[in-house]
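I wish you would study the pair of lines that follows with an eye to the fold:

===
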Amino acid sequence: MMMYLRGGIRPAAARMLLHRRPLSFLCSRAASPLATSSSSFSLSTRPTTASSACTGTIRSSSRIRQLALQIVVGQRQRRLFSTISNNSSGSVKELPVKILYGTQGGTAQLFAMQLAEALEEVAPDIEVTIEGLHENSPDSVLQPGQALHVLLSSTAGVGEPPDNARDFWKWLSSQESDNLKGVDFCVFGLGNQKAHPNHYNVIGKGLDKKLHKLGANRVFALGLGDDGDCLEDDYDTWMESFLQAVYKGGGDSEEKVKGDASANETTATQPPAPASSVVVEDPTVTMQACTGAKEGNGGKRLISAKHGRLRLAPSGTDVSRDDLLHLDAPFYIPNTTRMPVVSNRPLNPNAGENGLYEMRVSLERDWGNTFQYETGDHLMVYPQNSQAMIEGVLERLDVDPHVVIQAPENEDPKKPYPHPTGITLTETLRHCVDLCALPSPNVARLLLGRSQIDYKHEIAMPRRNILDLMADESAPRKFALEEILYNMVPMKPRYYSIASSSLVHPEQVYLVYRPVQFTNNRGQLRMGVCTSFLKNMMGKHDAILDDEYNLGGAVTPPSSHLVAAVNSNPSFRLPSERQTPVLFVAGGCGVAPIRAFLEERIHLASENNHRPFGEGYLFLGFRSPGDAPYKSMVQLAFQIGAISNVHITYNSGCGEGLNAQLLGNSDVRAHTSCGLVSDAIGEHSEQLYSFFERGGHTFICGGARLFGVAIENQVHQLLQNHGDLSESAATEYLQGMLADGRFNEDLSD
């Protein structure tokens, strides 16, 4: 199963040192900024000649920022947000700005860096710093009278603060009234109303309420972003409104926050009012003589004065490397290496293009020993962009694709070039930038050449990528190399839940993935960058085995490799005591880590038949019987007591004889049905409440927006029904299981 975190990014100042942590689960994941980020990121926002660069973290569009503020802010944002509170202490606009982020996956940190760059444009004399809420002791984070504090925080788990904000949240909750007088602040919360309707943005709302109650001065209204709708658009609207209110003179007096503004929560969920497009011409982009220009351009190419001018050198070859492991300054995280693909096959011959696939990867190193992993860990995979996407971007640049990119001239050390140097342009586009990623609102304005866009409907909903916008016929033009490379989203690794037991396969890992492919509302084919990369890696398909648990079949000879690393996931482990009851719940690709757990329990049962397991419940959901893998493994696990209750549901293709297909008998403890996994859990709610009361450990794996929220709602409901609990008491019960490590989720966004 892949988990792909929405925001994880890395400051280029430390050579892309921030990776993202798992959050999704479409068959791969992404990594925590907290694991590798070592210090706060600070900007002294003075004007520079080599102005704003995308550091690999800030997705920016400096060339249109000023016009965007003049045009968009005045028309769109004033109707959505209040301006400076009339109880501000002194001139807030002259204070240093301290941007504080609480993040689980990296998005809040990304937003912090976007705000820092925007402040550079509108308030170049203001000192700006960015800090994670984990980087200093909680009592030293807030500085009365010394800074304007902008807090950006997501909500994690069941209405909990993200990992790096837990200590600060605990400290803030322990403070008494009026302890924070003189602290100027504003808050933007990141949440997902579809995935977590009962806990939507409770941390953002809580920070705003607690700070105000403790006497701090709210200088701008609370903003709430909904990732279930269009988080980037929500934040873009709030950010521009904040800049307009604090640094550009604010709106009309009747729009100002008056007195207690705790009710002034604003969510930007509506598209901007229709307005005429304003084409932005950038006088800083000029045609200049330059080494590396395409043939036929007279030795000239477009240069953007907004960024350090990249030096280009001939490469002498048109061969593109398969990876970047040769670089002296590492591009990948430590312990990343080439891992040969042993096999890559569809798990069912009749599942079609979007069926589940299984890949087996060797962990053996060149010198003989192997990488170690534990059951429940992840494999972090670095994908590559498709050749078609790369060629599409190259076609719209006026630079030879084989030139070697070297360090820029007159580079601003605070905003360095965000990608490796010493590699060709083609290699940069293949390995370093995510061409399928959704561009930020500012980058979309840059590429479309318009100061006004309906980001949600024009960009986010159709999932348009950077090539779509570069090729948009409404603004046909060539682009300067710098304005593209400095503004592209860095390629992030995808985290795949390992689908094998380390006890059974110490030298290999199994991955399960489903190729992501759909047509958007503009009729364009969209494909997942990593799953497409994986699917195209195979030389030939394995023979499909009738018994998927028979591991002796033929495999594809190793003809390709992944660039990957093992990522430890210590919070996702089977309980050490075999008698502890367990509950496995998975949908689709979420079967990956459940397969690993079943394989391990089968192995442990065969090792010692005299030590039986405690109760084991298994709830699985698939599209149809033909989509369901590992039936033989499930059957074996049930027969030997590795699990005691099996419930498999299908969305379609249901008919007579499903139980016989599954287990060959009519045991009431094992059956299949047509419907949803959440419905099956509801039907067994009394048993499961007893399971929770006996200290059972739960493992839930699947998509967050539909699967995860449905399972969580069912668990919440059964706690109320069978535990005679109120809604808030059921939430506390669930939070207690999370804190005790008895309720473990692997949910994608």
User: Anything to note?
Assistant: The domain at 65-267 is CATH 3.40.50.360 (Rossmann fold). The chain has four domains: 65-267, 285-320+385-485, 338-382+496-567, 582-748. The mean pLDDT is 79. The longest strand covers residues 337-346.
